[in-house]
Amino acid sequence: MILLDRVSKIYNRKSTAIERINLHIEPKEFVIVVGQSGAGKTTLLRLLTREEKPTSGKIVVGGIDYDKLKDKDIPLLRRKIGVVFQDFKLLPNRTVFENIAFALEIVGASTKEINSTVPRVLEIVNLKNKSDNMPYELSGGERQRVAIARAIVRQPKILIADEPTGNLDPKYAWDVIKVLEKINRFGTTVLLTTHNQEIVNKLKRRVVTIENGKIISDRSNASYRL
Amino acid sequence: MKRAWTTFYRVLKAGFVNFFRNLSLALPAISVMTVTLFTSLFLYIANATFSNTINQINNKISITVYLTDAITQPQLKDFQKQVKELANVKTVEYVSKDEALAIYKSENAGNQNLLQAVDETSNPLPASLNVTPYDINKIQDIKNFLNKKQFIKLQDPQLGTSYSGDRKQAIDRIAKATTVMREAGIGGIAIFALVSALIIFNTLKMAIFNRKDEITIMRLLGAKPWFIRGPFVVEAAMYGFISAIVSIGVIKVMFTIFSSSLQASSLGLLDIGYATKFFNDHFWILLLAQLVVGLMLGILFSIVATARYLKLRTSK
To answer: Is the ipTM value over 0.90, yes or no?
Structure first.
């Protein structure tokens, strides 16, 4: 599903974000990437969403070879990957419903389809009664669940979550993680970055540890260890 | 096809909804556009009015060609015809000796001495041709024509034409001054238009800058550039539309209700009566022009201003 082959990202001579990373993620896997701030976690995800180009190496996601991807096709790639950001990135002037509907409008879904899909997804993230609220009326946890709803509404094969619990209280953080697990059970590959030890230990999933831009360990059923 | 319409409808709807949800950003932009569109329209009307005043002055300027008493009817007809055929000549009016005397008498009705003096002799006033030019800057061309040998002998040897000496100087000065004023008016409007365009562009740029995060989010979700840009363009077009209507509305109110106080406050520099008439006569075309300018500025500038946030190129 996701393949990184000797991928490096060098910003300048003094700053290497990622160095010769090899990573292979199977479909339906739930993988947690851990590492301290500045270790290269976010750069790794930005490479996958094509916000950045690698300096060298090969990236293939969902059968798309990034070397052959043209700039104008980047929107099409991004439609295939669901992304959840630490800072939610909700559209501030749109309601919860409209934020989620936007993801479907982009791909030209019909109004009928939108009206039936969005409430279903809101149910998955337990926000059915917040449909008409504006983002500023929601708590952090609720906003993050809206972001997740938006990321999964197009039923992507891959969901990338960049520190989705980073800005949340522990209570809300677990709500978000539970939703991610639920989505994974439905068959979506989940790639989660975090440095929340408790979450990693409880999840007992495959854990990839990055330090100074390199993968220093890759273990399944693992706990947090730096 | 249906999908294209759905997308178009969604872009349009998002533009309208965003407009109302972002009123706090819209109001400053609309205010700036209204003020500049108002000032441009007012300057345009002022310039048209001023032009009209200049034309009125110019229309009063003519050259009088004094004719010799010895001129025969056929010579007069031929001369008149040839002058009329000159490109810069608008009208040629013949004033006979008798008419000249009648005019002289009516102009000096209060001065018995002068009236007596002309009555005592046979009519001393010459007949004349009153030539009105189209362009007072090119009177010299007419004068050169009149100075041709065959025409000189038809003219009164002492008086010749009125375009000479002090009078020539005065006419030339008026001609030069009116040309400068006209050019200054056009130049002023052009500079103002350029400055206003820059101000409007910057205002829209700021409004869009404030929402650049929104654009980034949409890009990350995989929206195509025009799907992101569309609503911004619709919003900016609405700014332009509203500004155009408000600015022309304010001018309409100004000319309708405050016409007399405007006349008083303009110190007679501007013929408000003519300005009002000009505005009312051209109301629909001015409205159309304002709308076109407002919409075009909104659309073009928002396209340019969103461009930098829409670049899909990834960093290498």
So the answer is: no
